TrEMBL record:
It comes from the Bacteria. It comes from Draconibacterium halophilum. Signal peptide: none annotated. Residues 1-127 form the DOC domain. Residues 1-122 form the F5/8 type C domain. This is Discoidin domain-containing protein.
Amino acid sequence: MVDNDFNTYWHSAWSGGVAPLPHYIQITFAEAKNIGGFQFWTRSSSQRGNDPVQFDVQTSADGVDYTTVWTSDVLETAARPSKNDVSLDKNYSSKYFRIRIVETRTPGLTHTTMSEIKVFDDGLLPY
């Protein structure tokens, strides 16, 4: 998801013992950083119902115990497979972050997928 190759992708388990949502991407920086937003790309242009459409962000002081600090509205139309911008309500500072997928395009699905993700400091300003 961070290799700049839109032909590769991450996919949660989809059969046999599938864990329910939310699924998460965990980010550990060498030192505390701000996250003010992120961009994600869906897996492909097909009409899959497992595209992520709602997220939350969690931070942690120790990398073990996480607290939800922000939750998005449901994205009505996530672009396929183009860039989707998600701005947080403010910058959140931590060494440990989780971006959690809490809902998919088809409510009730327990699996999801993404091609790429990039996090940004101060809204959508790149590091």
